[in-house]
Structure formats: structure tokens, C-alpha cells
Amino acid sequence: MVAALAGVSRATVSRVVNGSTSVAPELVHSVEQAVRTLNYVPNRAARTLASRRTYTITLLVPESTSKVFADPFFATVVEGVAKYLNSTDYMLNMVTSSEANPGKTQRYLMGGNVDGVLVVSHHSGDHSWEHLSDALPIVFAGRPLLNAADSYYVEVDNEEGALAAVERLISTGRQNIATIAGPQDMPPGVDRLAGWRGGLHQAGLSDALVEYGDFTVASGAAAMQRLLGRGKPLDGVFAANDQMAAGAHSVILKHGLRIPEDIALVGFDDDQFATGVEPALTTVHHPIAELGEKMARMLVELIEGRAAERVCRLPTSLVVRESA
Amino acid sequence: MVAALAGVSRATVSRVVNGSTSVAPELVHSVEQAVRTLNYVPNRAARTLASRRTYTITLLVPESTSKVFADPFFATVVEGVAKYLNSTDYMLNMVTSSEANPGKTQRYLMGGNVDGVLVVSHHSGDHSWEHLSDALPIVFAGRPLLNAADSYYVEVDNEEGALAAVERLISTGRQNIATIAGPQDMPPGVDRLAGWRGGLHQAGLSDALVEYGDFTVASGAAAMQRLLGRGKPLDGVFAANDQMAAGAHSVILKHGLRIPEDIALVGFDDDQFATGVEPALTTVHHPIAELGEKMARMLVELIEGRAAERVCRLPTSLVVRESA
DNA sequence: TTGTAAGCGTTATCAA
DNA sequence: TTGATAACGCTTACAA
User: Fold this and answer.
1) Helices B44-51 and A44-51 meet at what angle, rounded to 10?
2) HTH lacI-type domain location, by residue (chains A, B) (predicted)?
3) Adjacent-strand bridge partners of B268
């Protein structure tokens, strides 16, 4: 360690580099100067080997690589994660749990090569990684289907968001409010439906108008079609995400009905689908980048043994545009 | 190293693990067995420290993190990279060159923490990383603006693709073929325009009908508007990407013209915009995932000192749908 | 507060 | 072909 040539022992250099408090200010100064002139960069591998800390966090990408990457949700989460990690010493590394090599990932993660894991398997019930959590700190994006009670995770407050959507609909005078719900085997699907129900009950309105979709545009269109086909009075719709709302949107217009005059429409997520239609969607903002940031922050706290809440629920906000 | 407890020296274990040829078959066998029963996983840090090889490849993400991640091109490249790397011992790590911490990335990369770098700054002329290449193997996605001559990169054959597009237009009887070209400060913009020109010249047709866009839907629409405004005969359009083609598409229909009967339209990229319009676009397929795969393969070859072509140009193929 | 010295788990050199 | 043994560059008791 060449920096020692600037006056002190390697131990002291190490202390300075790692910000130990117990070092004489003058020594700190001269070491820092030496570091600068020698352009010294600590060797990560050596540091890891000695300290048994890797300063590496793995982003675990589930099986269906192609689908996940195409998903803007994923991209935005990663963006948030990267942003936070940039302010720390941690490096981010991605591992896709290859179908081909099931054990490889496992071994890598358990092999002490990583300080913690971030799991972004947003849909796909595959939470085969939960068992890792007793070997390694793990934070999930979204509430896991199983073992939610002992998992660390960050999610948006889906129920609150849906409630706000319904309240908007009610406050603009709607009385017959339907929902296009998401799959009931996914927490967001369940929670958004519950929020819708809650809002209606609060106002003493009926919750009979429910149709289900799978979060795709096509399924939203089909659900809207069924809703209209019921022949019941209908003047407001809450779709559990913007994609389904977009599908409903086109069906409503195709039926010669006006948005929002005849049917008001509120979506959820505030993504490109919300602004990609005309009139643009009033929707619930899903703070995805913040979710990623929070996940990373939580994981780092966990790793460093600082207090960390087991679950973090991010608040939503209603974005009012033209559709409701 | 506990595995040594199964008969031999640590040196031999190392040889077996690393597949050295000069080891007695019986020893190989017993070591492998020991590895299995002890569930031994080599320690990356120790290996790196001793061998000065990190088995880590960095994916360098340019400044504007949010834009890049939103770009499906980026996501797909990463997918390809990850896929190839999964078949190797290399790990992928992402570093976003934070505006906040300009030197940090630099030091990390130069600090011997990485075996090679993949740069995916698809647009954004910022190739401030080219100087790294004399310290570290680097492979770029797309031909770099500067120093293309001494850079390693993978690109799609833009000129060939554009040529095929024009040939399609000609073969379906079009005589007055325009182009909506991309920015001329980006290699794909330049090359696709050149391909269009080449096709027309080959056929003895005029190359007068050129308008420029910036690869966005809106710019494509505006360019189409200008093309139509010229009042010249026009029965075919080649747009330099599908987004601009989609913009042109809506303008054509809005003018009461039919696609492809009145104006045939060919795009480039074969992305979601090609299938998102009705009639769907005939377009040039851009093999993005393959590009990522090839980049990774090239980098690994470079790192391991095996022969590697300086530039790899991926072939395109025409996807015939309804618009031409 | 500072220095000494013992690892950390591999690979690599050199004899045997 | 195999085995000692010395690095690799850092952290961290433990002493001073």
C-alpha cells in the first residue's frame, strides 16, 4: 500500500479511508493528500476478502427475462435503485435467474458474493427466492404473495390510491361506479379492488359492477364491453391500471359515449397509457422510481444493521386530467 | 479450503476447479466429489485478488438514466447481454455515470474492479468514455460518432436494411419514393439515409424527396405533413424508424389517403410501433437482443485475448406486413 | 491514537 | 503431475 509512504502505517491509512473517527486530524490530512497525489483507489477484492463485506447488491431478475425488461415498471424501479446506490459505496449487479442454470444463481448468492438482494418479480408468482431471506437480507418490490409477514418489501398504497380514485368519481357526481379489477392472485389486483369497494361502501353505493381483467389493454376492452353489456346504469369506471383503462377508453368511445360526460374513467399507475389517449386519463400516480429508491435504502439499512421497517407503503396521489 | 480435506493440496483443487488439463483423472474425480458434498463455492474476492481477474463486466449507462431506461432498445440490449453472460462465469454490473459523482465511475472502472465495459449510449453524443479504451476493453452498442476506427462495436447493418426497404417499395411498383430521415449527427440516421439513396440510384429513381425528423412520432408526423405539402407525386415512404413511420401513418390516413394503396410505408426497427398501427407496418427488423448478445461475446473474447473482430455488423431482414 | 502482525481464500511460482 | 509456499491488498484484533 503505497499511500503508507506518506508518513504512517497501512492501518492508519485504512482508518482514514474508511472514515474512522479515532485518527489525528493532521494524519488524516496528510493521508488524504497522499491518496490524492498517488491517485490511490482501494482494491475492492482485497477489501472484500479482508472485511467479508462485498459492497455489492444484486438485482434479481426473474425467469422471463424478456418480459421483465420490456416492462417499464421494471426499468423505472431500477432507475430508482441506481439513483440511491449512487450515493453510497454499493455497486449494483444484475443476475437473471437463468432457467438453464438454476443452481448457479443460488450458489452465487449464497456464496458470500453479495451483501443483499433486491427482487423485482412484480408479477409472476414465482417467489422461489423467499427462502434466501434467512441467509441474506432481501427486499421485495411489492408485497410478496406468500410470507408477506416475514418479508421486507416496499409497495405503493394500492388501497388508498383506489379509494382516492373512487372518491374523485363520487365527488364529480357519479352514482353508478364500476371497476375493471386486476387478477385476484396478485396483491395489487386485490388491494385496488378493496379500495374501490371501500370507497363505495363509505358513500353507501352499490359494489355490484365488477369485471376482471389481467392488466392488459385487450382485457380492459373486453371487460368494458361486458360492463356495457349488462345494460345497467353506469356513469363511472375505475380501472385497476392504465392499460386496462386505455382498453376501456376505446370501447366507451366506440359505443358513441363521451368521456367524461357520459362515463367518467379513472386509471391507476400514471404511465404512458394515461397520456396516450384522448381525452387523457385521470389516474392514480404510482411513484415507481421512489419505490426503487426506497427499496435500495431499506436494503442498505438492513445490511448495515440499522433499524429498518419491515414494510414501507408509499403514498399515492391523484392526477386529475380530462377523463374524470 | 476445506475441499483439500478430500485428499489433495489446495493447488490441485484450484487446478481442478479451473479445469487445468494436467491433473490425474482420479484426482479430478475425487476433488469434484468433495466439492459436491461440501457444497463448495469458490470465493470470488479471493480469486480476484490472487488472479487479478475480476470476472465482472460493467454495463455503463450514460448520464440521463431515466431516458435510457425508458428506452426499450436499452432494455432489449441488456437482455441479450445477460443471456450470453449467463453462459459464462462473468457477472454483469451496472454503473450509471452519475452527474453528481463524475470521478467515482472513472475511478471504479480504472481501479481494476472490472475486466471490461459495455457502453450503451445509443443516442446522446456523449462518448466521453472512449479514452477508457486504452486501459480496459470496451465494446460499444452502435458505431461511435468519433474514433470509430479504433473502437470495438456492434451495429446493425443500417444501410443494408434501408436498401431492402426501398427495394420492397420498388418491387411493389412504387416510383416516387420519399424518406423521412433521422438526425444526421447519428450514425443510424446517416446510414439509413444512404441506404435509401443507394436503392433509388440503383433503380434510376430520384432522391429528391427527403425530410428530416428526430426519431420521435411527432417529428415523423410533421415530416410527412411537409412531404405531402410539396404537392409532388408520392406513392412510397421509407421512414428511418418505426416511431416516425407511425407519425407519418396517422398523417397519411388523416389526409384521406389509403395505406398501402395510395402510399406504401416502410419503417425500421420492427418494434411495438410497427404493430401498434392499423394497417401494421412493413418494416426492417432490428435484431436488438442479438446485438446485446454479440456485444457481450465480443467483449469476453477481447478480455480473454482471443481473436475478435473490431466491428460486427448484424444483418437485417425485412418484415412484410400490410403497409407495403 | 497509532503501529504490528495475523489473517481473508485464492492463484501462481517453483521445486520435487 | 503434484505440493509447498509466497503473494494478492486490505481489515482488524491486539499491543504499545
Assistant:
1) 140
2) 1-51
3) B284
Provide the pairing of β-strand B177-181 with B210-212: parallel
Strand C within 7 A of B1 CB: yes
B61 vs A: CB within 8 A = yes
Residue B75 to residue A79, Cβ atoms within 8 A: no
pTM above 0.70, yes or no: yes
CA-to-CA distance for A79 and B184, rounded, in angstroms?
A: 30
A18 CB-near residues (< 8 Å, 6+ apart): none
Instruction: Please give the pLDDT value at position B313.
Output: 97
Q: What is the pLDDT of residues B194-214, one digit of tens each?
A: 999 999 999 999 999 999 999
Q: Which helix (H) or strand (E) holds B160?
A: helix B158-171
| B43 contact A CB<8A | yes
pLDDT at position A283: 98
Rg, Å, chain A Cα set: 25
3-class secondary structure for B168-205? HHHHCCCCCEEEEECCCCCHHHHHHHHHHHHHHHHCCC
Question: How many pairs of residues across A and B have Cβ atoms under 8 Å apart?
Answer: 113
What pLDDT does B131 receive?
72
Contact A125, A185 (CB under 8 A): yes
Asked if B42 and A82 come within 8 Å (Cβ–Cβ), the reply is: no
Question: Hey, are the CB atoms on B82 and A65 less than 8 Å from each other?
Answer: yes
Q: In Å, what is the separation between the CA of B264 and the C1' of C12?
A: 66
Q: How far is B246 from chain A (nearest CA, A)?
A: 14
The Cβ of residue B35 has, within 10 Å, a number of other Cβ atoms equal to 18
Q: CA nearest B179: which of B143, B203, B206? A: B206
DSSP string, B136-149: S-EEEES--SS-GG
Contact B286, B156 (CB under 8 A): yes
> Within chain B, how many helices (H) and strands (E) appear?
12, 12
Q: For residue A60, which residues of chain B lie inside 8 Å, CB to CB?
A: none
**A155 is written with which cell numbers?**
409497495
Q: Which residues of A touch B86 (CB under 8 A)?
A: 96, 98, 100-101, 104
Cα angle for residues A206, A209, A210 (degrees, 5° grid): 125
Reading across the β-sheet that carries A264-269, which strands appear in turn? A210-212, A177-181, A236-239, A264-269, A282-285, A317-319
Whose grid coordinates read 379500495? A195
Q: Stretch B141-163: mean pLDDT, rounded?
A: 91
Query: Best residue in A53, A69, A113 to probe B by mutation, most B CBs within 10 Å?
Result: A69
Residues of chain A with pLDDT under 50: none
pLDDT at B107 over 90: no
Calculate the angstrom distance between C1' of C5 and CA of B205. 82
Q: Which of A93, A120, A216 to mutate to test the interface with B (most CBs of B within 10 A)?
A: A93
Q: Which three cell numbers stand for residue B147?
A: 474514433
Q: Of A123-137, B107-121, B257-271, which gets the smallest average pLDDT? A: A123-137
Q: Give per-residue pLDDT as tens, B36-70.
A: 888 888 899 999 999 999 999 999 887 665 666 66
Residues 62-91 of B with CB under 8 A from A: 65-66, 69-70, 72, 74-76, 78-79, 82-83, 86-87, 91
User: Is B194 within 8 Å of B227 (Cβ atoms)?
Assistant: no
Q: Hey, what's the cell of A72?
A: 417499464
In this prediction, what percent of chain B has a pLDDT beyond 70? 91
The secondary structure of chain A in percent helix, strand, coil, rounded to multiples of 5, reads: 45, 15, 40
